Amino acid sequence: MVGRAVVARPWEWASVDSVLYGAASDPAPHRRHVLDQYCAFAERQEKEEAHKIRRLLIAPALNLFAGEPNGKTFRRVVDEIANAERTLSAADVLRRAAEQTLLPETLDAPPGARWDHRSKQYFEPPPAAVWDSLESNAVASQVVSASSRVA
Hints:
Blueprint: H1 2-8, H2 16-21, H3 31-48, H4 54-58, H5 71-84, H6 90-101, H7 104-108, E1 114-116, E2 121-123, H8 128-150
């Protein structure tokens, strides 16, 4: 079931390398980088393929902004641009839709950053050391809680 979660909300998994595997950093510093890299890939694919594959290339990028401000608008505008301007490449459709709809903060937020709807801004995740101490505190409180129930 992890595969479905990755497809539905790929950016949620952007910090897997550092969180689960202890990597010093994650491969993608922000979504703008991912979008740029994916657009470069899409351009190469469209040059190599003789038949039209634009829709196939657009589909994987649609959920990159799922759950983020204007994410639904991004998906709608991608569809509108793709239908209105059939000569555009997949990369151009994605770039135009991103420029028209997404906040710069959404494109530049690092992996793990969360959008706060009240303050209308992203908050970066705490460093891994803070997560480790929070996790050990949570485990300790569970142990204390369980031992108090036994007594």
